Amino acid sequence: MAAVAALVAALGVVAAVVSAQTASGTVYLSFDDGPSRYTPRILAILDQYGVHATFFELGEHVAADPGLTRQVYAQGDSVQNHTWSHPDLRHVTAGVFATQVRSTDAVIRAQTGYTPLCLRPPYEAVDAGVYARAESLGKQIRLWTVDPQDWARPGTSAIEHRVLGKVKPGSIILLHDGGGNRSQTVAALPDILSTLQARGYAFATMWC
Length: 208
Ligand SMILES: [Zn+2]
What we know:
hydrolase; NodB homology domain-containing protein; disordered N terminus; 8 helices; 14% strand; 7 strands; alpha/beta; binds zinc ion; NODB_dom; TIM Barrel; 50% helix
């Protein structure tokens, strides 16, 4: 019977390893609408868990507090373009589109030395025209696949459950470090990170 018990135990170990391998994969954590006064708290949590993320920043917020953008970039996170003032890009002229993108490039470049190659249109508002204009400016559009609607402040546990219930290998998770009170997002982040790491996920950044 001892041999049987040992075999069962060994099979259990094998099953656990296979299960971990099945669940493992890469996810992309992204933060929109910053930088803001919540950004340093998010950076501290990311640093604590050894995780890097992609920050889609608004040019007007970078201009208001450029040191925050330097801090994000210096920590090894990716800083990308979310327009200057968050318009619906389907409904602006070609000139406004270009100004929204290029002015944001300029303030990010001034802090990082890097010109963003990814563009995340506000409100997930894209059509063929938005894709064509983005391409003409050398940008690739990057949206998301997991949206817990944290901006609506549904509660810390709701944010956690919505992320953890939908995430799978390759997921791009949308959270917000700016645009309002982000204390629920900050509070949800440690459990999200520790749970995803326990599931075997690695975190990658987007540079396009
Ligand atoms: Zn946004």
